[in-house]
Each structure stands twice: as C-alpha cells, then as structure tokens.
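Collaboration report, partner site 2.

Our partner group contributed sequences for two proteins of shared interest, and the home lab folded both. The records are reproduced in the order in which they were received, starting with the first partner submission.
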Amino acid sequence: MRRDVVLLFSARAVRMFGYGLLAVVLVLYLDAIGVSAADIGLLLTLTLLGDAAISLWLTTHADRIGRRRVLLAGAVLLLAAGLVFVATPVFVVLLVAATIGVISPSGNEVGPFLAVEQASLSTVTDPARRTSLFARYQLVGAVATAAGAAVAGVVVQAVGASVEAPSNAYRVVIVGYALAGVVLGILFAAVSPAIEVPPDERRDATVASRLGLHRSQRVVLRLSALFALDAFAGGFVMLSFIAFFFHERFGVDPVALGAILAAANLLAAASALAAAPLAARFGLVNTMVFTHLPSNVLLILVPFMPSLPLAAGVLLARFAISQMDVPTRQSYTIAIVEPDERSAAAGVTGIARSLGVSVSPLIAAPLLVGSALMAAPFVISGSLKIVYDLLLYRSFQSLRPPEERDRAA
C-alpha cells in the first residue's frame, strides 16, 4: 500500500509539472502558429467543456470499470493531445484534440486524475491519515506546477536563441508535456489492484445509481451545489485579476507582481499542511468553515487598503489561511460516501466547481477593466464565500465522517 501511495504521488508530481510546462507556452504557441485571438478563446473554452464532459463520464464509472483503467485512459488522452499539438498547426485538428484530449490551459488539474487518485489513496490509507495525506498531495502538486512553469521559461529562452521560429521553442516544451503522458502510463501500470474498490464493498448490480452514485446521491448533489457557489465566488478573484488590480491601483511592475503572487501561492500551499491537525482536533466541517470565514473577511478588505504594503500584507495573510479548506473539503467528500462511490463523488463535485468558476470571470472582467468599481470583485467574492461557509455549516455540521463518530463514541 505504501508503494501505491508513492506511485500516485509521483504521478501527481509528473502531471502537475507537465501542466506547469504547458500553461506558460500554450497561448504563446497558438499565437505563434497563426491561430487568431477569437479562435484561441474558442479552443480554450471547448477544452474546458470537453474535459468536463469526458472527466465526468470517466470518474462516475471508475469504481465500476476499474480505477487503474481510467487512470491509464487519462494518460493516453494526455499523450495524444500533446502529440497532436506538436504535429500540426491545423486549427480544426487542434480543436478536436483539445476537446477530446487532456490539455490544461491554466496549469490547474484537469482530466479524471484528481478524483480517481484521491479515491484510490483513500482505499489504501487509514481514514485517520486521509486529511494529512491529501494536504501533502496538494502541496506536491503546487510545487510541481511551479517547477514546471520555471523550467518552461528556461527551456524557451535556451532553445529560442538557437532557432528562427519562436513556435519551435514552444513546441519543445509541448513535447515535454506529451512525454509526461508516457511517464504517467508507466506509473499507473505499476499501481497494484489494492487501489480498486474491495469486492465486499461494491454495490449490488441491482442497486439503482445515477452519476455513479447510489446511497449518497442527495448528499453529493447538495455538496456540489455549495462547492459550485464557492468556485463561482472564487472566479471573481483569479490570480490574473488580482495582478491586474495591483497593477492598476498601485502601479506594481510585473517583477513585483510575480513576487507577490509567488509568495501567495507558497503560503496557500503551506497552509494546507495545517489543515490536518486542526481537523483532527475540531472536525473536518469546523476546520473548513472557521478557517475559511476569516480569510474571506480579509479578501473583502484588500481593495480598501490605502497603500501597497498594507494591501499586499492583507492579501498574503488571506492566502496564509485560505487553503486549509481544500484538503478538508476533499477528505470530507470522500469520507461521507460509500467506498464504491468515492471516485464518482470526487468527480461530480469537482465538475461542479469547474462549471461554477467558468461563469464568474464574465462578470468580473468588466468590473475590473475600465471601471470605477475595481473593489467590487473582491467584495462580491468575499461576501458570496461567507454565504457559502454559513450554508455549509448549517447543512453539514451534523453529518460527521465515520472516523469522527468513532472518536466521539
């Protein structure tokens, strides 16, 4: 079981490194090969929608058809998409590859991997260690993404000096992304059958299910609605929007912006590690809510700070506690469903978050760009997140995971 944990963590690191590579060069590459701005927008939108649809099907069937098979299928889709992007500049072909394959335009997790890996880790890990394991899993991903982005910049600079067309330098990085799919396939093939749903915990074939869920359908759908609200609120303050605000409000140059956002990301990743001991003491729902609430108050205060040091300080303080709800949220979702619903539950709630966050930038961008209401996205985001926290606490404080009920008994 320890071997499986190492393999799955390694797969997470390889994949997020690849996502970090691609996020730096994808739009630059498409522009360099002559894809128009409108077509780039269309391709990225369909990438996200296609990924959501395929990931939903794979994750909601993973516990039935086999988690290793789904992970291997994801690796093949990632490899195929990378190879197509390297091989041809034809937009229609790129569009099909991006929609069907696994392409991450933002550096964030895409595909079926997150949901299935977390379900698999839960199967081979003691429930008491699950939240701590998820916190380290998140930290590994954050560090790997940052490393991939840094390597992409170095490679483009080095290769770009020796080639005539910039697209060739970007293409080298995309080859690296495709190779990540090969490494993922090797790692997933080495994972043992222990990650699958135990035979005695599989539902009877006659039990009705929707989206891979049976007993926990209502609970997961309620969670999904709340998580979509949280993600919708978060879309108002994407990192790119925060960077724009600091540039417009305080005249911060790109180098300083990079330093601020890098520090924010590192604090956010480190804050996740504090979630496990807090959850062990106070419970998963309490940790989710009562660390998230103050971070949202700080978020609302950011645009009202009179100087750059104060605004940056409040923002960093917010990030220092803002991510404690991530491993606890993931752990809670896995804990309150049946073992043969774990991949589906993680997948459905993950897709709900993806759909939620895809809408809010359409509202936030006009408020930020060329508007006197630049503080509005921060206020809207923080306020909606507070509503989410209160609704989550009211709805789920009494539904405790088995390990917490066992401790109370």
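Second partner submission, folded after the first:
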Amino acid sequence: MTTRRTILAATAAAVLFVSASAANAQSFPNRPIRIIVSFPPGGATDVIARTVGAPLGQRLGQNVVVDNRPGSNGNISAELAANARPDGHTLLLGSDSLFGVNPHLYSRMPVDLRKAFVPVTNLVTNLLILTVNPERVPAKTFGEFIEFARKAKPPLFYASIGNGSQHHIAMELLKRTAKIDLTHVPYKGGGPAAIATVGGETLAMFGGGSVVPLVRSGKLRALAVSSAKRSPTLPELPTIAETYPGYSVTIWQGLFAPAGTPPEIVTKLRTEVHEVLKMPEVAQALLNAGSGEPSLISIEQFTAMIADDYVRYGKVIKDTGIKVDN
C-alpha cells in the first residue's frame, strides 16, 4: 500500500509539474521583454536587437525594449543579465567575443558565462573584411599585401575596434599564419578605426559590413574576407583561406537567457525568433545595415559553435599573448 501511495504521489507531482510548465509557456510573456545589448545605440549589434526585437514583440504581444549597457567588452551587460530573474523577460544579446574571448582575456570575470546563461538561439553570422588605405598601400591583391607587409620597415600599423576584439584577433591570427609583422593600434569602435585607416594614421584593418560603403566609395580598398566562404555582398573578394587553408574568423550574435529560465519558455522564444529571422524584410534590413545574415541553425549546432570558439580563441590568445587591463 505504501509503495502504491508513493507511486501515485510521484505521478501526481509529475502531472502538476508538466501542467505548471505548460502554464508558464502559455502565460509568457506577461510584461515587456528586455534585451540587454553590450554596445551603444546605432552600432551593428544595436541594429540587430532593434530589427529583431520589434517584430518579435508583435508576435509575442509585448513590447521588446533594448537596453544598451556598453563597456568592458560586454562583461558589464553579461553581469546585469545574469543577475536578472530567470523568467524569460530579460535576455542578453551576446557575441562570440564575449563567450569565446573574454574568459581567456580577463583575469577576473564578473560571472562564469557558461554556467550563468542558457543559449536561446543564434541570430546572425558575419564576416570581417581586410581593408587597406589605397593611397598609402600599393597592394591591389591579398597576396601583394602580404608581400608588402613582410618587407615593411618599420612594421605597418593596423587598426582594430579595441583590444581583444574579433578584429584584433583576426589580424593577430593572420600575422601568425602568414608570418608577417604588424603593429596594433586599438580604437574605441569601428568608426574611429575606419577614420584612422582612411586618414592614413593606420594602414590596414579588419572591418565588418559597415566598411562596405567606404570600400565602394574608394576610401578603403578591400583585399579579402575572413570567413571560410566568399561574401555574397562582395563575391569578388577571395577568402584568406584560399591562400592559407584553415584560416577562418566569423562573427556571431545570439540571444541568451539567465540560467534557470524554464526550458519551455526558452523553446518558445527560440521558435518565435526563428519565425522573425525568416521574414524577408528582417533579413534585408540586417544585410543593409552590415549586421550580418540571419542564422537559422539548431540549438545543438549553436551550442557546439560556442564551445568550439571557446577552445579555438583561447589557444590564439595564449599563443599571441593578447592582454587587456581589467
């Protein structure tokens, strides 16, 4: 009799849990959803949040509010999001740099990112474009640039959007791969870095889609892209991997929820975000802004990508000795 009562009690508890979970998903969301972004308004990451957030809010029946919290390569926004109530109403728009680079770059992290968050979905992937100042660098091709850089005395100055950024790591990886020497000059953002390269203060840089207008106007010369495949926006540009097989640096941005968020809410968010990313107008808006292409990969693929980047970038940082001040 006791065993039977135990089984019945366990069964009843399981039914109640399933019912509560279903109720959570059905009642979610019951107030505005906040997406915390690690960069200031107006940048490519902010555009992603707002472009996806508006139609997502329409589908969910609640406003989606973008909360910009820049600083410390995303650590500030990560700490804020990690400490939010895990009910799906606060999300983090996180990048490969935050999850793959920062844990190796900073001696002290505010939170253990791999324990503090659960991945909801990847949003976009993007590539970097190797560009040079066309007045100061005679190279017309990627191969010519490598030879020019190899012979330059003193080494050429290159710009990045900041210490430890993907732009920084991409060039350091190229230096190691091609066995060339370049001197890093960090700037606070893509705009200042591009202005410096256009003005000749620095002679080369990796830039995102936002440098495309400068390339089209002739103010910068594009030589190659960092991804494994050629860019649909600039298909004439070779990949660096065509010269150096295995070289690949891509940028991704994804949504994360605080650990402990009910799985059914995470699943509901993932499903709705994927529907938004399938909208042609959303995809076009992201491409036009240089924010990347929508990425509709499975959660298993996204989780594996996060883990792979953590290992790969950790090795690059260790081998190159890249450091930042905490």
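Feedback sent to the partner group on the second submission included the following. The chain has two domains: 33-125+250-320, 129-242. DSSP finds twelve helices and eleven strands in the chain.
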